[in-house]
Specification:
Number of strands of chain A: 13
Helix content of chain A: 25-40%
CATH topology of the largest domain in chain A: Nucleotidyltransferase, domain 5
CATH class of the largest domain in chain A: Alpha Beta
CATH superfamily of the largest domain in chain A: ATPase, nucleotide binding domain
Number of domains of chain A: 2
Oligomer: homotetramer
CATH architecture of the largest domain in chain A: 2-Layer Sandwich
Chain lengths: 313, 313, 313, 313
């Protein structure tokens, strides 16, 4: 039995898990992330691997990390939340754990997880769209993770969808993630509530009258309970997602689109408006297959599972 | 010596050529295109192959056709200008010419031509952007033509760049090709001239005062002669191209971007503003390699050469 | 009893009517418009006045004309549909009819009609928005028709609402009337039907399957009958209208907004979505009175009645 | 000789001045503004009037205040920076100073100042556009201050110019002042400098490498010294201003447009690009007079002078 260790380096936690050939996590551990200290993070990763290895015959290690990873799956060119700059993470970790290590961009790893064991396991091409704080993306094309020429592709959240639009943290205006992320959902819901609009009062009441307590999960819960304002906000988010993914589909022609991230928990309250907007924005409707839009199945473990599995390949 | 025949099915002409392993066209023939009569076009293609074959030991045939081609490189799902609907073009042609035939989308074929023998021959990934009547695109990713899950990818001209924007022939609003094509260039230049703007008077004079005679080649020629209005129009087109290709680069991370099509004849009068806008719209400048933007080298023979070469693979 | 004659110069008809002090039309006549022949139109107007005068003691004549009218209410600077260029229309007509004549922009005249006798008769400020082929506007401010410094104000249809938006006949991109007119309504409904969208099939069936027969009145009738697609289209038009009129309200702070033109026949199917979008786009909600949005009351006679009444002032 | 007292209530200072019939300030005093304490501000105003009155035979008092002022020029409906809500400011002040008092919106007062004694003294209609932290506006139409039906007009900064655009402090997206204010100028210049763009390095050097020290005056000074990046930024601001004022001109048809506020100090480096964009966005060029665009002449004393003069009328 070939077991692999998957590591997911998040902003606050590092998760490590032992993953079997069916994508099942046999054991999982979590530690606090030593934040921005690059070396400490490497130590923590090695510690997790060492612990898991005591109980499981791990043969390889796959690490999913936010950031630009070079094509050889070894070097982190740049990580937004960690002090890695041209860091030979593969080398550093192999020195410590004496096992073969591969490094993957976390969204690519998650796309692979969904492709191999989740919502896309019947597909050959897959576009993963994660709707969380931002909008992330991962591509599997022709059965392979697509890494781009420089390891910096699939940054779909920074496709420009509105010229002169909302300012993005990246410095550009009008990025997709400013309209289609969970942060956008919350921003617009709060703005509506603040304006005194009647339709937003249900959400505001649930938040105890405190605008700052209007969150993604609160909106989703309200929508599930039938709150009209919350449903409208999710539908608006779905519309932006569908229109953006239509542009991506003109370019990539994926077999299936998988939607993950926290906001995907809203299920069809988000996905149905997304599907409608998507279908309405595709060229050549009637002469082309229209990719299905599905909810992700592996939740926030997709990256860990995908990274582990990719380390075996 | 392995020779292949490449066929380029255009709206008014069908070109056929014998292409060697270095991408050189040894002989080329052209016939009028029997327009929309699907069977007559097949006859015409077979006729070209037969003629060329009399003088050259052709082993395979590659056909570049505008439209959606299925992944098996056999069936034209839909062609905008020809009456092909789910047409087994490969089967029909093989029956007639008794040689192995492959069908390729014309932009994909052109991308391969530039990749194998043209502006991208040193690269492993390439995005071809053709700026003509519309904006077309072809992708070579990791050394392979990217065909998408359904053969309908790389339609970059229909990425939406302006919500509620200019109406496109496809029925959508705000498609990239409404802002970044040769047609857009001419439309805006005529509109400016009609408005009586001083800066457009040079172009209008060259056109003998006839708005309809302001064409892409006229604008390019005027710009080369230093006409300020023509240069401004090309720069504006370049800006849209650069900004759109920046979005594509966030998604695809190509190694190199090759610009073809008639308007690319304007060279750096188009490409320099494009490069500037492109660089200004990329996330993570400073931490990523920035793909070069180059002019295509094979002109309007890229598709023929590419189709021929792909038939050998 | 002071009677005035009102003239409405339309593209295909010229209407003349005798209007009393209560804005009631006592008698009305119509003749074909001699189209673009400026002098023939003047003859036709004089003919109408002469006929009406035989039966009614008319004291003044007011002419409503599409185009730019100078501030002295005498000269047509420019008319889009008639060959008037700096035409002293007042002088020409007074020579012919030997009565005092005033010339008014037709939308201004209609705004005055609604202000004096129609939906705004209780108000002191009024913004008239006519939703027809284009979007027209007329202003009554502080109880006076607002004519602008040069007689060319209140052209609200050419406020830009979408940068790089839909091309307008005027040569600009993104004009309000490209989104909020009856023409926009029809264009979008046809486009939706052409795309094969399920929701548009009801409209298409009513049109006997002929896209060109989807018209404004057909959409309104379908919407009244409960057709979801037609209602959606009217709601979308209402949204654009409401958002545009919100911008106008930030600038003009009218007491009341009156909506006329053919599409206003859709009543609250248009006006309710307009009101909702309007209220949602006003700054300082809660600290300011929100102008009411009302349907016009005088139909297509507002201009004739208004022009007549203005000639008495 | 009829002397009036003008009061300008700013965020940090309250200015009071004695203004003669020629708009000349004979004496001016300033005190700290007691910020948000409504009554203390009234005391401070009364104190200024009392002091000035000891030396000058003041007959009336005009107060310019940011906020919504009712049409009777008495009540502040809402002030963004002071705790006035439906405050009878006229009544409160008249009780204290025993002189006739009128209250005016500050931008209206400034428009009147420029109209009566400044850049518009030869005009009958005037649109004042102040380009500072935000974009403010004041209208004089047919020789009278235009106050709107509810005292809340001329808020041109909140005309929407980009659907789904940059978030405004008012809660809406895409307001004019997010693109055409001094704040927008600084935001974009800093963003450009942060991105590492070569063209912004001159501004950054002047700021000693500190992004936060790139300010409006720094940009203007750099532009005057020929810095290409600063000139580009001012030209971009001018373009937005010109395009927005073109929309306003379609609506209002002013005789003259006066540009004030801090950024207007950049003179033709701002106004020339504004004029060019303005002329390029007007309907019916060639058939209409094009309003001149002029720099304001009274600087930040326009409001004080205008308020004083309006109190005499």
């Amino acid at each position: 039995m070939s077991l692999a260790c998957g590591i997911d380096v998040g902003g606050t936690k590092i998760a490590g898990g032992v993953v079997d050939l069916d994508g099942v996590i046999i054991e999982e551990l979590r530690v606090e992330s030593p934040a921005t200290d690059a070396e400490a993070i490497e130590e923590a990763i090695a510690g997790l691997v060492t612990q898991l290895r005591e109980r499981h015959p791990i043969e390889t290690v796959g690490v999913g990390a936010a950031g630009y990873v070079d094509k050889s799956r070894a070097v982190v060119l740049f990580a937004p939340n960690v002090a890695w700059r041209n860091e030979d993470l593969k080398g550093e970790l192999e020195k410590r754990v004496q096992l073969p290590v591969v490094i993957e961009n976390d969204a690519n790893a998650a796309a692979w997880g969904e492709f191999a064991f989740g919502a896309g396991r019947d597909a050959e091409d897959l576009l993963l769209v994660t709707v969380g704080t931002g909008v992330g993306g991962g591509l599997v094309l022709d059965g392979e993770v697509y890494r781009g020429a420089n390891g910096v592709g699939a940054e779909i959240g920074h496709m420009r969808v509105v010229p002169n639009g909302i300012l993005c943290g990246c410095g550009k205006h009008g990025c997709f993630e400013q309209y289609a992320s969970g942060s956008a959902l919350v921003r617009e819901a709060r703005s509506l509530a603040m304006s005194g609009a009647q339709i937003a009062q249900g959400m505001l009441r649930r938040a105890g009258g405190d605008l700052q307590k209007i969150t993604g999960p609160l909106i989703t819960e309200a929508a599930r309970d039938g709150d009209a304002g919350a449903r409208q906000q999710l539908a608006e988010l779905g519309r932006w997602l569908g229109e953006g993914v239509a542009s991506l589909t003109e370019i990539l022609d994926p077999e299936v689109v998988v939607v993950g991230g926290g906001v995907s928990e809203a299920d069809d309250l988000l996905l149905d408006p997304m599907r409608e907007a998507f279908a309405g924005q595709l060229v050549g409707r009637g002469f082309r297959p229209i990719p299905g839009i599905r909810k992700a199945e592996l939740g926030n473990r997709a990256g860990l599972i995908g990274a582990a599995d990719l380390s075996r390949r």
